[in-house]
Amino acid sequence: MLPRPAVDSTRRPVRGPAPPLPEADAPTLPDLGHGRRAPFALPALPYAETALAPVISAKTIYFHYHRHHAGYVATLNRLLAGQPSPSPNRSLIAILRGSAEAPSQAALFNNAAQVWNHSFYWHCLTPGGGGRPGGALAAAIDRTFGSYATFREHMIAAAVGQFGSGWAWLCVEGDRLTIRRTANAQSPIQVPGLTPLLTIDVWEHAYYLDVQNRRADHVTRVVDRLLNWSFATRIFEAHQRALAPPFTAAPPMPVLAPLPAQTTSAPPPAPLQEPPPIPVWRIADTRAASLARLARRR
Questions:
Q1: With contact defined as beta carbons under 8 Å apart, do 226 and 52 qualify?
Q2: By the 8 A CB rule, do 13 and 41 touch?
Q3: Which CATH number fits the domain that encloses residue 166?
Q4: Dihedral, CA of residue 219, residue 225, residue 226 and residue 228, to nearest 10
Q5: Is 121 within 8 Å of 195 (Cβ atoms)?
Q6: What is the full DSSP assignment across 48-113?
Q7: Spatial distance between the Cα atoms of 158 and 154, rounded to a whole number of angstroms
Q8: Is residue 260 part of a domain?
Q9: Is the separation of the CB atoms in 198 and 222 below 8 Å?
Q10: Considering the entire predicted model, what is its pTM?
Q11: Domain span at residue 121?
Q12: pLDDT of residue 20
């Protein structure tokens, strides 16, 4: 292990544990440990400095983390402290996005973006990683690229083909995956709606001590042996949940009020009437009437 360089205590970033909270201004991303507001911290590495060897040596990790990443954090905090009207409550992502299109704030953007990019990058690597992912992310890769082999080919080509310093990214945008590459400090996090899942650092300080100018060798080994698919899957699943429409329970059926009590009674039924008596004709009476009529005719 190389000795740590002496750093001016006024410029040394404050280290601290990563709080288990989502990234500010990017709720589908996990917290990366640099804090939510200035002064920003240099997050602890998620593994030992020797853990990624032999793909990335402890010597490379030492200079990359303690010199480059720590330098970006210290410079960013110094720039923020020197602003005439500092905004201590602004998150790192808010600073990054707010300075991205302002030429006068190029230094602020470059250091803010490189702090965030590196904090994200360390989590994209893990000992024993690489290979094909599983679950929903593997299915999304197959839908987008046709197969993992095709994705692997395009991811390596994006990283190797980035001219000069920069980054290669696997991102999710809406309901589809996309591979992006950015130059220097540019980052997909500065674009709302574009969520990074993994990145590969192709600045020379990320690999030159190990493989010199053989960038393709470094990138291929990172993809095959170090990519942290568990980290990417957590972000992808959080993004998918954010896309799903919220479940709204159907409103309960209204309770019908009981019918009012009957206040009037029905009129009493009319009494039954006796049918009229059937007349009984007496044969004797009829015969007597006929004899009387005959007597009168005579």
A1: yes
A2: yes
A3: 3.55.40.20
A4: 120
A5: no
A6: -TTTTTTTS-HHHHHIIIIIIIHHHHHHHHHHHHTSSS--TT--HHHHHHHHTT-GGGHHHHHHHH
A7: 6
A8: no
A9: no
A10: 0.76
A11: 58-243
A12: 38
Count of the separate structural domains present in the chain: 1
Tens of pLDDT, residue by residue over 177-206, are 999 999 999 999 998 889 999 999 999 999
Instruction: Please indicate, yes or no, if residue 92 is contained in any of the structural domains.
Output: yes
Check: CB of residue 221 under 8 Å from CB of residue 55: yes
> The tokens 């996990």 sit on which residue?
30
Do residues 6 and 92 touch, judged by C-beta distance below 8 A? no
- The token pair at 273 is 């009437």
pLDDT tens, position by position, 42-84: 999 999 999 999 999 999 999 999 999 999 999 999 999 987 7
Asked whether residue 100 is assigned to any structural domain, the reply reads yes
Residue 281, in any domain of the structure: no
Regions of the chain short of the pLDDT cut 50 = 1-20, 278-290
